[in-house]
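Ticket #4471: structure output looks truncated?

Reporter: J.K.
Steps to reproduce: submitted the chain below (198 residues) through the standard prediction queue, then opened the result file.
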Amino acid sequence: MIRHCKIGFAVLLAVVSGTAEEYPGWSAEIRSKVEAGRCIVLAKRPDEGGEPDSRFVTVAAVVGGSRETIWDVINDKENAADFLDGVLESRVIERRGDRLLVEQRTRVGGPRGSYRYRLWHELRPMRRADFTYAGGELRNVLGSWWIFDASEEDACIVVYSLHIDPGVLAPQVVVKAGMRKTMPRTIQSIAKEVARRK
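Returned output as attached by the reporter:
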């Protein structure tokens, strides 16, 4: 379902909790490219109305499957190493309702090869998950997942936004260039696991 990435701007009409919501800066043209099977690198996160936060790389793609299955796969932290490209270890350390503390070890380019870190995940079930850095071998990690309805009945638009700062040895321009290549593979891993669970 995912072919390749293109840089673009988009206005997305998303049905969230039964109401159409319009996000500034997303065009119908880009939405049609996403729904045609492309993974698009977006200029802004869905929640940004003004200038984009330049720390983030944000990608969007259609994933076939129900909202519930997509949500379950995105938030399956205990089994993430089994299906998520680049995740070597993952476990939930603490649960507080819709808040999770997760420890992961992921494969990252560069001399270290992998990093171990902890993230707090704030869940808004079936719609959005935000994560923030809670310590470990990186300087900072921030990100979000969104799930929006797609035109197809059994599919959703998945948006993944991420900022990683590994520290002084990796300039942000290099880190972000790598993320533009790896983040579409992350969504592709999600799509494959959703298809497997159908």
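Triage note (M.O.): checked the attachment and the full token line is present. Residues 1-25 have pLDDT under 50 and may be disordered.
Status: closed, working as intended.
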